[in-house]
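Re: beginner question about structure tokens

> Can someone show what the tokenized structure looks like for a real chain? I only ever see the sequence side.

Sure, here's an example I had lying around. Input first:
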Amino acid sequence: MSTVHVLNHPLIQHKLAILRSKNTSVKEFRELISEISGLMCYEATRDLPTVEVSVQTPVAEAKCRRLAGKKLAIIPILRAGLGMVDAMVDLIPSAKIGHIGLYRDPQTHKPVEYYCKLPEDIGNRRVFVVDPMLATGGSAVAAIDFLKQHGCKNIVMLNIIGAPEGVKTVQEAHPDVDIYLAALDEKLNDHAYIVPGLGDAGDRIFGTK
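And the corresponding structure tokens:
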């Protein structure tokens, strides 16, 4: 079974408390999503392999470490996942970016695909699938299904808030995919929203409600 990492860093938890508030403005909400994503990316990339290199400084030669191994890709699930991308790219500027468009059917709560565009060499990259909310897990499972169909073998999920139901769904469908969360909340309500959650992340990022 995959590992669920709940990141308890004080900066992440402080920013998350502000993010949850219904009084947080669209501008501040968008900024906080980005800031939390950057901090989570820092934690989720701790195990990236490095190789020793020699660097000539103005004074002498230094033995340093640089990233080695597979290249990286960031795949936001549209549309809310877009809010997490920029901060991650700031840390990993060489990462390629793909997009998977899914929406949740309001009646069935199941994901419906409407767009998928991935880097040509996606199967050779370590992939970070990003979406602020992991609710039912349906969209996450569908996105990972698409990626595996394109040859991806090294996939990680980054979600700011998750529900136990969504975590269980992803783990059962894809036990090889680790999950990083800033918070694991209590449950889903009857409308498949995370409780206590923060509402609809996409609407709050883009100011559409």
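Each token stands for a local structural state, so reading them left to right follows the chain. The mean pLDDT is 94.
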